[in-house]
Structures are given as C-alpha cells and as structure tokens.
Amino acid sequence: MTTKDLEELVDTRKIVKSAKSDYVTIEKLTGEEIYFPETRHVIALVDEKPQYIILLTNSRKEGSVTFGVNQGEFTKVGEGNSCLLLTENSIIGVSERSGHVRIPYSSIRGVLGDFKPGGGIVINISTANYRFNLAKKSDPEAIIEATKYLHSRIPI
Predict the structure, then answer these.
(1) How far is it, in rounded angstroms, from Cα 138 to Cα 54?
(2) Cα(144)–Cα(55) distance, rounded to whole angstroms?
(3) What global pTM score does this model have?
(4) How far apart are CA 122 and CA 105, in angstroms?
C-alpha cells in the first residue's frame, strides 16, 4: 500500500484533531517520529481512531520482544518499532515487523503493570495474558494519561 493509498483511506489530520490526547500526532501515526511504526494501515484495517498512543520498547537485539502473548508459554508477537494505540473500543499493539494485536476492552479481565517508562503492562483476557513492554524513552505523562483512559474503558 502506497503513502497516497493510506492518505486516502485514513485522514490522519482528522484523527489527530479528534483524539483525546495531544500525544497523538501526525508524525507518530505515520512513523515519521523516531521509534514509532507506521500505524495508518492498522487504523484503516480495524476502523478505529486512536485516542492515546504509547511508545513500546524497540530493542534491535535478536529475539527482543516488544509485546507478546502468554497462553501457558510466552510467544513473541511484536518486534521492532512498536507502539500501543488506545481507541474507544480496544487496545492495539502495533509492530513494524510483526503486524498488530487488537484486544477489545470488553474482553479484558484485568490489567497489571509498572506504568512508567521502561515498565510493562500485562492485560489479562480469559484465554491469555498480553504483555506490552514500555520504552524507556516513553513520555511519563503520556503513560499516566493513557493508563487512566485504559482503566476507564475496562468494564471491571
């Protein structure tokens, strides 16, 4: 998909303007800001608008995991530049090399974590635990705002 195709599918300016957070920017959504992956293809696919965005770790070490799922045994899901999108209906992990994982808030049974740069978030659904590793370079205020939003969306 070309940049022009993405621009036609996703009106990035409109998404940024409608976001609840000032941390959602054109540069982050398009992958122009360092360490952030291109997210517009995922936004078009899931048809949800991000309200918050958090940078996930992007260690280039072989076998490094930015996010993954544990169903008895941990499995890598995301590698490379990655971020977490919080929409009105779900939380979405986006990775430049591995695609994305979408977790509807309605399926979340619990959230645990160390909600700070370099920390991590574990989201429990009935069949698995998803782990998201926050980047050390994440903005602490963005994490705090997004965490409050996440907790407000979970029907627990």
Answers:
(1) 7
(2) 13
(3) 0.85
(4) 13
CATH code for the domain defined by 3-153: 2.30.29.30
Domain ranges of the chain: 3-153
Q: Which two tokens stand for residue 21?
A: 């957070």
Q: What are the backbone dihedrals phi and psi of residue 151, each rounded to the nearest 5 degrees, phi first?
A: -65, -30
- 124 neighbors 112 (Cβ within 8 angstroms): yes
State how far Cα 102 lies from the chain centre: 9
Q: What's the CA gap between 76 and 119, in Å, rounded?
A: 17
**3 state SS of 77:** strand
Rounded alpha-carbon distances, angstroms, from residue 2 to 6, 37, 38, 59, 98: 6, 15, 12, 27, 19
Confidence band for 16, pLDDT divided at 50, 70 and 90: very high
Return d(Cα 100, Cα 156) in angstroms, integer.
25
